[in-house]
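In this section we walk through a basic example: taking a raw amino acid sequence and producing a predicted 3D structure, encoded as discrete structure tokens. The instruction is simple. Fold the sequence below.
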Amino acid sequence: MSIHLLAPEVASQIAAGEVVERPASVVKELVENALDAGAKTISVSIQEAGRRLIEIADDGGGIPAAELLLAVERHATSKLRTASDLFHIQTLGFRGEALASIGSVSRLTVTSRVKSADAGARIRVEGGITGKIEQVGAPVGTTVRVEDLFYNVPARLKFLKQDLTERRAIDGFLTRYALAYPEVRFRLTDGSVPTLQTPGDGDRRAILATLYGVEVARQMLEVLSEEDGCRLTGYISPASLTRSNRKEITFFINGRWVSDTPLTQALLQAYHTLLMVGRYPLTALFLEIDPEEVDVNVHPAKAQVRFKSQDRVFSFVQRSARRALLAYSPVASLPSTQNLWGGNQSSVNSNQPATSGGAGSSVGLEWALGHDLGGEQAPVEQTPVIGQPPSFEQQASIPNLPILRLVGQIGATYLIAEGPDGLYLIDQHAAHERVLFEKLMIQHSQKNIPAQTLLTPQVVQVSPASAKVLEEQLPILQHFGFTVEAFGPNAFQVRAIPTLFSDTDPAAALRALVEDFEEDESPLRNEIEAKIAARVCKRMAVKAGKALSPEEQRALLTDLENCDSPRTCPHGRPTMIHLSVDLLERQFGRKGAR
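The resulting token sequence is shown next.
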């Protein structure tokens, strides 16, 4: 094939692919333009997750009618003139590609009016073809209407994800920018339903309450630090308030949201030894730095940056977050209990932090792998593959537990019990998962999952993205005995929970379930019921780090003994480690030297 120049419309669609990846990309570019224009109110309306319509209206400075035609051309911008300006950027947009890129893959209408004009002006762009400017009545500001996104690029349209996922991306973006610009009033409407509305009064903690609920906002720790030309403000969560993924870790640099892995690692280092493995904080941090110290022209989406002094910036973030954690958070300690050696079966005091993987335990790696230390491999029972519920054949081949005598609890995470054949170290979370799972599945098989109606229904506030996820999964929760109803924008009312989980805080239980739903893109209705039950029980089970009373320890041990498959949790993780009497005698030298 001979070399030739691409047609302008083809070249523009290729360029648009770098800027407009999905509906959320359109929202991002247009909202950033509105902020650059000095808007104090920004309204976003979407239909069909942005595929059908995205409309963004602002009260900013507007675009003069004489410049409207130029505004929809490629590389047209008012924010820089020379290459050297790239190192002094103080605006969110600067590449001059957004409107042209959007117009090349949609039906775009831009209506704008400046304060000095008596009337507004409107221009339409369809598939990269620009129409004439019309004079229209309009308020001061700009309204951009994007219809039928990717109508002329069916391959791009086909690769968009489910509506729920695309809406969550839009919600997540606006949530972040609402926190970054608390003085701006944001409003998001999905169809005819408002899903986000902020007051624009500058109170960032009030916005946290709007997005995550009053209780979460109350717990967030404020960060305020400044040194060597760097300033860090915002909020981080205490070690007791975490999520199972990094989605709620938000960084803004000079007002621009960035996705920067090293910055995230610097933050996580501040939580070192304070969080369990696999848990992550909620954060909204805003870093202000000399524009000459950061390069924002790394990627067309402007979500990545480079620092001149990377180590200095990361160290500053880590120290600032750590100081806030230590200033606000008391050192955790386990409640004192009766002496383990006094004859009572109770918890063991420990000042070691409880972490997954057995912090505070002296069990060696060889024991955990099922090998004795005399060089001879100990028999390993048939165990299901980790991450997969055991099959019925596997369950039938795993023998039940012998009657165990409780010794106590260690590290607020593990139970110690004595059996006729040695010592058992039991993971309380995994064990409780197994107990709840078998009870729930028995009730499910009998088509009778008893529910307990709450005397006072509890209202749970969640983020807009989480609200959409929860709405999709309400039938699943109803099937397993939860009664949850919508109760206003991004709010839900818990009216009843399964009797099996009656000791659980209903509001905390619902938040935990939403968190679990968000981790998986596939709808739960496509899963088999046993897997759904396993996921529910995982969230409801007692967590590592919770000190149990002697009565609770005995009850858990008894329930585990009565399970059909007591040696693994529903996901296949072992519930216990068995140290035989023979192995203990070898370790203490009672059966000859090693």
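Looking at the output, two observations stand out. Residues 331-398 have pLDDT under 50 and may be disordered. The two ends are 75 Å apart (CA to CA). In the next section we compare this with other chains.
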